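Appendix B. Worked example

We walk through a single record from start to finish. Start with the input: the chain for ATP phosphoribosyltransferase, Comamonas denitrificans, length 214.
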Amino acid sequence: MSITIALSKGRIYEETLPLLAAAGITVAEDPEKSRKLIFPTNQPDVRVVLVRASDVPVYVQYGGADLGVSGLDSLIEHGGQGLYQPLDLQIAQCRVSVAVRADFDYEAAVQQGGRLKIATKYTTIAREFFAQKGVHVDMVKLYGSMELAPLTGMADAIVDLVSTGSTLKANNLVEVERIMDISSRLVVNQAALKLKQQRLRPIIDAFAGAIGKD
Ligand code: PRT
Ligand code: MG
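Next comes the structure step. The output line below is what the pipeline stores for this chain.
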């Protein structure tokens, strides 16, 4: 009854390490310096797999991993089917915002009631937000570098993650609306939670303790 933990490289991996440590789990090798995808830990029955951030919920849903750490953005876009979400880990914090070119009058465009062309990787979040505002949108789905879309005239606005705001600034874009605050969640496969309860519970409890929620 081994345990597989799905993480993504970069900030989520870095910020999850202390939580794993609280559960007595240390990764044997530095994944940032390796091309491997599966990493053993100090515990013989626990391994870590590294996948794309947006694939973490998918691995956990289908049992490729028993648990994982996923940004709320990725979780909303995934839909959360088959996932138990016991903890907001409050790591990898940022926000989802609407941004436009500095010379684009967003308020006027919204008030005029025409269609706004939105480029984003976060189509579910964006669709819901503009529907609630009563703004009609045409959605262009992108997988990265959203900032480029308004600069090339492909879109009026983007919906993207912002943390310091320096990426927007560097591209002459301005944040015009904050849609929601984002942090990462612990996600657990619902079937595994029942079948591997004994092994998973202490890990979940250690994570809860480490973020001050025990
Ligand atoms: O890169 P890939 O396509 O594999 O996936 P990803 O970009 O979703 O993964 P990753 O590892 O970059 O981010 C994982 C998770 O970290 C996201 O799903 C968020 O929940 C969270 N997070 C927190 C962020 C940021 N902060 C963040 N700043 N994810 C991305 N960014 C981007 C942002 O989109 C911007 O383009 O970083 C850039 C810099 O942001 P500023 O505002 O600090 O300049
Ligand atoms: Mg990225």
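Two observations about the output. The chain has a mean pLDDT of 97. Residues 94-182 form a domain with the D-Maltodextrin-Binding Protein; domain 2 fold (CATH 3.40.190.10).
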